[in-house]
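Give me structure tokens for this 211-residue protein.
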Amino acid sequence: MSEQLKKTNKKKYYDNISVGARTKQIVHLVTKQDKASMFEQFIKNSETKQTVVIARSKRSANDLSTYLEAHDIKAMIVHGNHKLAQLHEAAQAFNSSKINILITTDMIFKSLELTNIQVMVNYELPTMEDDYFMRLRYVDEIGESISFVTPEEESTLNNIEIMMKMDIPQKDVKNFIPSNPNEDIKPAKDKKKKPRHRKQKAKKKSEQDNN
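Here you go.
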């Protein structure tokens, strides 16, 4: 059997580990007060791509939308306070590339039937880790997932990485200047140590041996 045919016949898996391994993911560490301004700089650095931004709450989505509007960045927002016709209009506008930035929440995102998502922005990590992987499947192989993570969200990030059995690369946003440059938001991660999921396995094995 030819190598090309082998690749064609290769079964594709959609579990958390497989999707995580196939999809480009990046983490940007930021303080809560700087998240909107970091996202603004991220957008300014980026090529025009079909970008979905998911916030944890309607209030957070509204705050980001107001901030972007004040800084002349065009984005459409839809959440639970919008009518069904408005949700349909937003989905059509995004799918036809009339708009390229759509801000929403997890609950509404699941009902929008969006296509051709190139960038999935986790403006906030979801409360339930499984929702992160639901988001990830929308850009599986074809796009990328960008997460803006505050110190308060690091435990959720740790759980996601353990579920994927991999660490997500951390990068800085080019030209972003934090409001408090002296504030340390570096993660507890030490790149020289073994990945966290290995530590977790070792811990469980040790507990079992002691029982």
